Amino acid sequence: MIHARGIEVSFGSVKALDGVDLLVADGEVRALLGPNGAGKTTLVSVLTTLLTPTAGTAVIDGFDVCNQPNEVRSRIGLAGQYAAVDNLLTGRENLEIVGRLYQLPKAVAKKRASEALERLSLTDAGDRLVRTYSGGMRRRLDLGASLVGRPKVLVLDEPTTGLDPRTRIELWEFLRELVDEGATVLLTTQYLEEADELADEISVIESGRVIAEGTADELKQRMGGDVLVAAPVDRNSLIALCEIVATVTGNEARLTDSGSVSAPVNNKVDSLVRVAAELDRAGIELAEIAIQRPSLDDVFLSLTGDAPTVEES
Amino acid sequence: MSTAIRPDAAQAISRPSLFGDAVTMTRRNLLRLSRTPQVIVFSTIQPLMFVFLFNFVFGGSIETGVSYINYLVPGVLVQTSLFAGSNTAIGLAQDLESGAIDRFRSLPMRRSAVLIGRTLADAVRSLITAVVVVAVGFALGFRPGGGVLALVAGIALGVAFAHAFTWVFTFMALKVRDVEAVQAAAFIPVFPLVFAASTFAPVENMPEWLQAFASRQPVTLTADTMRALFNGTDLGSSWFWALVWIAGIFAVAATLAVRTFERS
Ligand SMILES: Nc1ncnc2c1ncn2[C@@H]1O[C@H](COP(=O)(O)OP(=O)(O)OP(=O)(O)O)[C@@H](O)[C@H]1O
Ligand SMILES: [Mg+2]
Question: Is A312 within a domain?
Answer without folding.
Answer: no
